[in-house]
From TrEMBL:
The lineage of its organism: Bacteria, Bacillati, Bacillota, Bacilli, Bacillales. PANTHER family: FORMATE DEHYDROGENASE, SULFUR CARRIER PROTEIN FDHD. Its main location: cytoplasm. Keywords: Cytoplasm, Molybdenum cofactor biosynthesis. It comes from the Bacteria. InterPro entries: Cytidine_deaminase-like, FdhD. This is Sulfur carrier protein FdhD. One of its GO terms (biological process) is Mo-molybdopterin cofactor biosynthetic process. One of its GO terms (cellular component) is cytoplasm. The gene is fdhD. It is found in: Cytoplasm. It comes from [Bacillus] enclensis. Mo-bis(molybdopterin guanine dinucleotide) binds at F245, I246, R247, G248, N249, R250. One of its GO terms (molecular function) is sulfur carrier activity. The active site is at C107.
């Protein structure tokens, strides 16, 4: 199957009192079933791009692997919608704690959270990484500049991993959790150290998103959207700096503000 994140569809539009026919672009939605050591383990609904990175990141976030080299084989059959994963030393306790389930592309109740695996794999972050307010705003602008799929369809979430100086890699997906898993997989597959890195993110900061950031081991999360109270409680407990509503030259630093060396912009500063 050809890897297409964006598909076209005929649509009848209405504008200024007139109907007309046009071809519109829509985000592709693709079900991928993971078979782990021969057993069906989970089905993910995602954007059909960077599937290997997503699978690797998801396995790591669920505590099945800690390093990419623990996977002895990984193949994806796009025609049938299956990912086949073999792991020599499968941690049975963690595999059993992850029930076979359908993982939807929508946000919130379609995902199960607060499994035993979350407790086993969430990390308290002690990184001393610092960022200025200007750098945080610049990272969010870079994320938006790399959001071509969202701009074309309006149906994608975007996530990027950044250094203090700029964006390193960016992924898009219809599921915000999938976009983060792709980043996690990319870091594991390419041996990217994350202790001094930052995540820029387009979606709401939910408890699920916060837990994924913790499992990745990253101390600063930037978002243009709002957080939930539970996410902020977790951020406080896990040592993560959560910043939301980064829009224009504004932002809200909700937790661990000590990592942001310029909490506010001075009138003389420009982007």
């Amino acid at each position: 199957m050809e890897d297409k994140s964006i598909l076209t569809r005929a649509v009848r539009k209405y504008e200024n009192g007139v109907f007309f026919d046009e071809v519109d672009e829509v985000a592709a939605e693709f079900p991928l079933t993971l078979r782990l050591n021969g057993e069906e383990w989970a089905t993910m609904v995602c954007t059909p791009s960077n599937l290997e990175e997503m699978v690797v990141g998801f396995l790591a976030s669920e505590g099945i692997i800690r390093r990419y080299k623990e996977i002895t084989s990984l193949s994806i059959d796009r025609e049938k919608g299956f990912a086949y994963i073999e792991i020599d030393k499968l941690p049975e306790d963690r595999a059993k704690n992850t029930s076979k389930r359908f993982i939807g592309s929508c946000c919130g109740k379609s995902r199960q959270f607060y499994f035993t695996n979350d407790m086993l794999t969430a990390k308290t972050i002690t990184a001393k990484t610092e960022l200025t307010a200007l750098q945080a705003i610049h990272h969010m602008q870079e994320l938006q500049n790399h959001s071509e799929e969202f701009q074309r369809t309006g149906g994608m979430h975007n996530a990027a991993i950044c250094s203090s100086t700029g964006l390193i890699q960016c992924y898009q997906d219809i599921g915000r959790h999938n976009a983060l898993d792709k980043l996690y997989g990319y870091c594991l597959m390419n041996h990217i150290p994350v202790k001094d890195k930052v995540i820029a993110f387009s979606g709401r900061i939910s408890s699920e998103v916060l837990l994924k950031i913790s499992k990745m081991g990253i101390g600063i999360l930037l978002s243009k959207s709002a957080p939930t109270n539970l996410a902020l409680e977790l951020a406080d407990d896990l040592g993560i700096t959560a910043i939301g509503f980064i829009r224009g030259n504004r932002m809200n630093v909700y937790t661990h503000p000590e990592r942001i060396t310029e909490a506010v912009l001075h009138p003389s500063e420009t982007i």
